[in-house]
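User: Can you model how iron/sulfur cluster sits in this protein?
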Amino acid sequence: MNRGISAPYLTAINGIKEYNAVRSERDGKKPSAFVLTLGCQQNEADSEKITGMALSMGYTLSDSPEGTDLIVVNTCAIREHAEQRALSLIGQYKHLKAVNPDIIIAVCGCMTARSERADLLKNSYPYVDIVFGTASLQRLPEFIYDRINGSKRIFAEDDDYSVAEGLPIKRESSFKAWVSVMYGCNNFCSYCIVPYVRGRERSRAPEDIIGEVRDIVGEGYKDITLLGQNVNSYGSETGGKFDFPGLLESLAKIDGDFTLRFMTSHPKDVSDRLISVMAENERVAKHFHLPLQSGSDKVLREMNRKYDSQKYLGTVEKLRAAMPDIAITSDIIVGFPGESEEDFEMTLEIVKKAEFDMIYPFIYSPREGTPAARREDMIPDAVKSERFDRLILLQNELSKKKNEAWLGRTVKVLVDGMSKKGNGLYTGRTDGGKLVHINSEKVKIGEFTEIKITGADTYALYSDEK
Ligand code: SF4
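Assistant: Here's the modeled complex, given as structure tokens:
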């Protein structure tokens, strides 16, 4: 069940707007808000809604916490380190409350959905005003309104997981956009905290997604990424009424000059229909991020991934047969509990066979609250590091080879910024998501351009034709 804007939401927005108007008058400047985002793309997308709501409430946006009137920290819980970082940053805001007792400090995101962390914030961070979970995002104005009207500190547990539609969004970019298609995850991979902090899968209605994409294409957005923890199971809770290939096909029919991407996919759910929709629709980027995690069937079983190496490689083969130029990228965890040298070598083997364009390798670290964290056969750090280095070495060779295959070809690229290398170069991304450094004065940020690839290394492509 999805819900629209509620009456309490509107009352709160209007109430805070009035409150902020009075303060603007008094102080000669509008109150400002600072939103800090930690973690993944889903958090970035959520923060764009928080920022949109802050603007609706009459705040201006600040890029620093100093001197602001509202701070919202959107936290991540994927690793212990991410939580420690969030807590340390929140710790730095204590002095801001001392300077300005009216400041409102709110903390949300995956970390706050863990009761032990919410308790810690309650007991050890008395200057934090509001703590709320990922499914209560749309209630932020209500919480702020209550707090400015003198309520006690607010600790809201998620109790309504229906999808909220109609929230304002202030997108970070003027040409790249995230569009969430579903929330939560049902998979319970044994190392992952996400299902515990983001709840079960629930999908947005296709008409809401199609409307949002149509609107942003109309505004000139060129690169649209559909987001979900497992986009392939989009619509599964509707008993097959709608599904991800159908959604992608409908979105690809929207008029305009844009590219559609999606992430993340679970290998157990990639269907032949999805592959043919990708192959048949020019607007769908020829890039597939397909997290492998391990090449050992034993480790995959213990990770509760529900596919084996054979099935995984079969999907890679189908993708390449349907789209010979497709870029395939992956996530790999090194040093899962009990991973033997033989298991790890199976991972190297599958990496060679799959010929990934790029991988995101992770060294396993136990995530409290997950089954894998309770295992007693942890791999020593030195062994994990040594395996990690071997994996990187292998992938670097493969990435270089994959990139060199583009030499001399003319490709369509979305120019997305200035190169950090300085000297006036632009950067862009190919359809397959590869980074290109472009040495040309003729290109424009936010526009597609056709360029010839004249150089390639492990990490990027280069275009030097002026
Ligand atoms: S599919 Fe697995 S790794 Fe991905 S979010 Fe769900 S539980 Fe975590």
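A couple of observations from the model: The chain has 14 helices and 22 strands. The pocket of iron/sulfur cluster is lined by residues 185, 187-189, 192, 194-195, 229-230, 266 (CB under 6 Å).
User: Helpful, thanks.
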